[in-house]
Structure formats: C-alpha cells, structure tokens
C-alpha cells in the first residue's frame, strides 16, 4: 500500500491571511509543517498543495514537491480531491499547512490501521481538559459512538451538560474530546468527495468533515493524549513562539 502525505495550504486564510508564510523562529510555518512530516515512517511521498504561484516556487526552493490548485477550493479535503488523479497514493494523509507541531503518533497509528480498518476515513482526537478550550470555537469538538466512530463534530461544546450550571466545571464531570485536524483517506473516498452533497451542517459549522457524516460515510477516530498546536489566528503564533522556545529540539 502506497501512503502519501498531502499538505493543503491556502495563502489567504480568512482568520489569518498569509499565515502559512509567517515566520516561526525565522522559518515559515508551511516549511515547518513539511519538515515535520518528513519524520514519519512508512510514507512514500510528501506533497504541498498550494493556491499561489509564488508559494509553489518557495516549496520547490525548500526541496519539496508542490502542486498548484484552485483558489476556489473551500477546504483541504476538497483541495486534495480536486487533484486526486495526479496523486499515486492508495492511502492519503491530510496534514493541514498550519500545524507545525503536528503529533506523529496518531499519524503512525493511521498508517498501521489503514490496511485493516473497516472505515475509509480515519482522524485523530484528544481529551479536552480545560473549559477555555472547550468553549473556544477554534477548538472543534467531537462526540463518539461505542466504537470510537464520530457521531458529530461541532465548534460548540458537545454534549451539553444539563445538570452542571458552572461552565468551568464541565471538563470535571464529563470527558470531552477535541478533534485534531488531520485525516487519513482511502483513495476511493477522495474520488467520491466532490460528488458528495455539501449539506446544511457543513455550511452551519464550516467543518469539512461534516460532509462525510451527512453522506453516511463513517469517520473512525484514533485517540491520542495531547492536542496539536495549530495556528488559526495571530495570537496562536505568539503561543507557538513561546512553545518553541521551551522546546528548542522539537
């Protein structure tokens, strides 16, 4: 089985424009992501999918493969699906271009499970331990069935704890799960993705993975211990600089 790691990266992010080129300790975020995934074992190729010619040239200068894709793609999954015929992988791992500290353990678990899992889509989740994270719309939450398949993803805290009035107490009374924005897809799902109907839930939450659930495609979740520090807004870049200073060998 051939495994490719694809890094979709949009230049004009709505919440933080040009963030993929913002320097993190002197190195652009996108380059850090690409260099991070080179540490994965069992992969065949790493490709960045970008929507700007200048970014494509930078990717090449950094020594990585890149493909220019449409500016009209609404999500990383859609960006990958739009050029799936140019990819050779049987199993595609989608790592977002704003995840310079992406955890490698769940990705290795995805690769190990890819040939034997009954699900065509795998993703990673982590325990939420603070009310700040739980109530942040930037932290995507997920609820699971008894087999760790996703029932629903939301920017809101789910489930709602009816009998706990103090929000700060919620993580004490229930194990909430956060979604790490990384996916593993079998090729056939990406071939189908553009033909799947984008429903009201995806539109309401602005979450690409809801298109899968709305079209009855199961998403198998892999538990990991720690969240990955993605960079969604300017404040996250400041936090990332602090993290990197504390972990210089990361």
Q: How would you describe this protein?
A:
With 250 residues, this protein is α/β, with parallel strands linked by helices. The protein has a single domain (3-246), classed as Spore Coat Polysaccharide Biosynthesis Protein SpsA, Chain A (Alpha-Beta Complex), CATH 3.90.550. Helices cover 30% and strands 23% of the residues. It has ten helices and eleven strands. It has helices at residues 29-37, 53-61, 76-82, 105-114, 131-134, 170-173, 187-193, 200-205, 210-214, 234-246; strands spanning 3-9, 23-24, 27-28, 45-50, 65-68, 91-95, 121-128, 141-144, 150-154, 176-186, 220-223. The strands form two sheets. Strands 1, 4, 5, 6, 7, 8, 9, 10 and 11 form a nine-stranded mixed β-sheet that branches. Helix 3 packs across helix 7. The chain is globular and about 55 Å long. It starts with a strand and ends with a helix. The mean pLDDT is 91.
Lay out the secondary structure.
Blueprint: E1 3-9, E2 23-24, E3 27-28, H1 29-37, E4 45-50, H2 53-61, E5 65-68, H3 76-82, E6 91-95, H4 105-114, E7 121-128, H5 131-134, E8 141-144, E9 150-154, H6 170-173, E10 176-186, H7 187-193, H8 200-205, H9 210-214, E11 220-223, H10 234-246
Parallel strand pairs: 1-4, 1-6, 4-5, 7-11
Antiparallel strand pairs: 2-3, 6-10, 7-10, 8-9, 8-10
Helix pairs in contact: 3-7
């Amino acid at each position: 089985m051939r495994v490719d790691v694809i890094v979709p990266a949009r230049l004009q992010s709505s919440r933080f424009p040009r963030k993929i080129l913002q320097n993190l300790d002197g190195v652009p975020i996108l380059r850090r992501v690409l260099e991070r995934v080179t540490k994965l074992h069992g992969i065949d190729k790493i490709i960045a999918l970008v929507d700007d010619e200048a970014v494509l040239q930078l990717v090449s200068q950094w020594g990585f493969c890149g493909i220019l894709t449409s500016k009209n793609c609404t999500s990383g999954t859609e960006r990958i699906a739009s050029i799936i015929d140019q990819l050779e992988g049987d199993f595609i791992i989608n790592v977002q271009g704003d995840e310079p500290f992406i955890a490698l353990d769940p990705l290795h678990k995805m690769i190990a499970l890819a040939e034997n899992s009954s699900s065509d889509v795998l993703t990673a989740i982590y325990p939420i331990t603070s009310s700040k994270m739980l109530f942040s719309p930037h932290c995507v939450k997920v609820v699971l069935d008894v087999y760790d398949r996703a029932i629903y993803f939301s920017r809101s805290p789910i489930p709602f704890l009816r009998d706990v009035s103090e929000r700060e107490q919620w993580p004490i009374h229930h194990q909430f799960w956060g979604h790490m924005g990384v996916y593993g897809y079998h090729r056939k799902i990406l071939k189908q993705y553009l033909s799947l109907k984008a429903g009201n839930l995806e539109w309401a939450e602005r979450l690409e993975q809801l298109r899968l659930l709305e079209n009855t495609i199961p998403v198998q979740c892999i538990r990991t211990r720690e969240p990955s520090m993605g960079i969604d807004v300017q404040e996250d870049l400041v936090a990332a600089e602090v993290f990197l200073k504390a972990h210089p060998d990361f």
